[in-house]
Design a protein that fits this description.
Layout: H1 4-10, H2 14-33, E1 38-40, E2 44-51, E3 54-57, E4 64-67, E5 70-77, H3 79-91, E6 138-141, E7 149-152, E8 166-169, E9 173-176, H4 184-187
Antiparallel strand pairs: 1-2, 2-5, 3-4, 6-7, 6-8, 8-9
Length: 189
């Protein structure tokens, strides 16, 4: 996939853009597998369509078979998104239709050129996501040195945990949070 336009308009690196897109796709897959819809405002909705057991034909032999039930991913654009596309197409002349964002005749519709490289501050790297099975793990922290408090992993940073905070779990015993491999993603920056 060519991510040049997204890189230029956001200032993010190709690796970051591809990582976000891959993460978004995986998120949609997980939600659809769970039977949930994924709504993207001003764009559309991804939703699962359940296909029950049904009669089908083997394309090689023509034999009637019973197809297994399955979930089929679907996507529906919002009317507002479709209208924006139509308004743009209708606003262009016939010679411009079908041309992409990289054409000189399309400059009124494209984003401004990116700022000079010496003005761009590179974005902070995106930390890797926590392992899926670890998101709800409970850790015991000691912020005051005396009081021990159980905290869900996804709440550690909001509770003020730093890489130097003493933290305990059954599998690790007492260690500083930054020394626990499963928590390194919290302090990567």
């Amino acid at each position: 996939m060519d991510t040049t336009y997204i890189e230029q308009t956001t200032g993010f690196s190709e690796q970051t853009v591809k990582g976000v897109i891959d993460g978004f796709i995986k998120f949609i897959q997980l939600e659809l597998r769970a039977g949930n819809e994924v709504k993207v405002s001003d764009f559309g909705v991804f939703y699962p369509k359940e296909l029950g057991e049904r009669q089908a034909r083997n394309p090689r032999t023509g034999e009637v078979i019973i197809a297994k039930p399955r979930t089929k991913p679907r996507f529906k654009f919002y009317d507002s998104f479709e209208k924006m596309i139509q308004d743009e197409v209708e606003g262009r002349g016939a010679r411009d239709k079908g041309q992409g964002l990289n054409t000189a005749s399309n400059t009124a519709l494209s984003a401004p050129p990116p700022p000079p490289q010496d003005l761009i501050t590179p974005p902070a790297p995106v930390p890797p996501p926590p392992p899926a099975e670890m998101v709800s793990r409970t850790w015991h922290i000691s912020l005051s040195g005396e009081k021990v408090e159980p905290v869900a992993e996804n709440q550690l940073i909001t509770k003020g945990v730093t890489s130097a905070t003493p933290i305990w779990s059954e599998g690790t015993g007492w260690k500083r949070a930054g020394e626990i491999p499963e928590l390194k993603y919290l302090f990567a920056a």
